[in-house]
Amino acid sequence: MSARFVVTLGILFGLVFGTVNIVVSLLNPVIEDTPLTLLGFYGPMFAAWSFTGYRAFQRTRRLRHAAVAGALVALVTFTVLTVIVIARMNLSLDTIVDRPDWRNMVASYPTSGFDSFRAYANYVYLTGAPFKLLVASMIGLASGSTGGVVAATRPTVVS
Fold first, then answer.
1. Cα 145 off chain centre by
2. Which residues make Cβ contacts (< 8 Å) with residue 121, sequence separation at least 6?
3. What is the pTM of this model?
4. Which residues contact 79 (CB under 8 A, 6 or more apart)?
5. Per-domain boundaries in the chain
6. DSSP at 31
7. Burial, 39: exposed, middle or buried (Cβ in 10 Å; 0-12, 13-18, 19+)?
8. CB 41 within 8 Å of CB 21
9. How far apart are CA 50 and CA 150, in angstroms?
10. pLDDT tens for residues 139-154?
11. How far apart are CA 40 and CA 31, in angstroms?
């Protein structure tokens, strides 16, 4: 599985999950991020990353390739998703400030030193992005490795 193909998958996954994020936000802008809501969103994403590792292992028979494919697809997925989430935040800022998970940001704004809440929200999102990308990549590494291990336990079919 080539790096170009994995990057393309990551872009596709990011666009799909970003679109889901926007649609859910439009339908229910103040939905709370409960554990079940988060599982419903991230579960399929992690499964997609695992499947990427599974397919990478099937092609190369190397667990390292499965792990790298999982990490790379996760990094690209989350990069695209982060851009979409920041755009969504800017487009619907007046509505999403009422979300329960925004309480801390709204409460910390008066002492932030920013003159604009929008600028502050963008600052928070952008400065948090590198850590989120690192975490997503590590989850992708684990997911891809898991997919690779599952693929390794499957019998090889010779055609």
1. 17
2. 89, 93, 105
3. 0.89
4. 10, 14, 133
5. 3-153
6. -
7. exposed
8. yes
9. 9
10. 999 999 999 999 999 8
11. 13
